[in-house]
Amino acid sequence: MKACCGEQKRNEGLKLALHWTVSQRVSVVQRFARAGADATPRTVNDERFLKKIVFSDGAAFHVCGHVHRHNVRVWAAENPRADVGYERNTPKVNVRCALMHDKVIGPFFFEEPTVTSNIYIDMLQLFAVPQFQEGLIFQQDGAPPHYGNIVREFLDTTFPQRWIGRGAVMAWPPRFPDITPLDFYLWGYVKQHVYSERINDINNLKQRFTDVIHSVTPDVLTRVWEELDYRLDMCRATNRTALNRYANLERFPFIW
């Protein structure tokens, strides 16, 4: 079945950060192949590995149009002299979403201004986990609320040997938003469409956010997962280049 015009426009609007040519992509894959059998990624051994992962992340959306994604970084060989502006004390919502290869779970809006380990685990138990299928692998970053003892104990019990993050069997690289689908795709897509019209108040912001999340189609997510696979190939192929100064990827079995 052909996509409708609205869906085609959304698909065309999916602009991912890596704009590689075909030859560049082939070059990366060839370099990776020359690395030998020891570097064979887990995604080759198990074609469905990436499709089993539920990626999760949170962000703060302000009524004024600012989005605080917490872990955004500017990478450069030299100091990029980048300036980041903030507006203080503006109305905002803390929101969390989870992303699978075929659907978005969320949004979940925290009513509390600050998310603690107790608040975070309540969200997992009452909202997120009941929507997960059996056998999935849960990923989270290493933010302090996610590292609390009660959170890690809950994850060890709920996802035994099947969660990725700080303190897990499968570690997650710190400050590495380039390989998190919510960072390299979802938050940018949401910001672009939520703020396409003026936001009047918090309730208006929440409604627009929810509408945009519900507009993400499985076809778009398929393309996002393909991009994720390419990005992981790039990480493996360039492990000993400038990227290695920020994270020794051999420490993270999720990638290797």
- The separation of the N and C termini measures 37 Å
Helix content: 25-40%
Oligomer: single chain
Structure class:
alpha/beta
Helical stretch count? 8
Major sheet description: 6 strands, mixed
Rg over CA atoms: 19 Å
Strand content: 5-15%
How do the SSEs run, as a string of H and E?
HHHEEEEHEHEHHH
CATH topology of the domain at 49-76 and 89-238: Nucleotidyltransferase, domain 5
Mean pLDDT: 76
- Unreliable runs, pLDDT <50, ≥5 residues? 6-41, 240-256
How many β-strands, per DSSP? 6
Reported CATH architecture of the domain at 49-76 and 89-238: 2-Layer Sandwich
Shape assignment:
globular
Q: CATH homologous superfamily name of the domain at 49-76 and 89-238?
A: Ribonuclease H-like superfamily/Ribonuclease H
Class of the domain at 49-76 and 89-238, according to the CATH hierarchy? Alpha Beta
Task: Provide a descriptive summary of the structure in words.
The chain contains 8 helices and 6 strands. The chain has 256 residues and is of the alpha/beta class. It has a domain at 49-76 and 89-238: Ribonuclease H-like superfamily/Ribonuclease H (Nucleotidyltransferase, domain 5). Strands 1, 2, 3, 4, 5 and 6 form a 6-stranded mixed sheet that branches. A hairpin with a 4-residue loop joins strand 3 (92-99) and strand 4 (104-110). Helix 2 (22-34) packs across helix 8 (218-237). The longest helix is centred in the C-terminal third of the chain and has 20 residues, at 218-237.
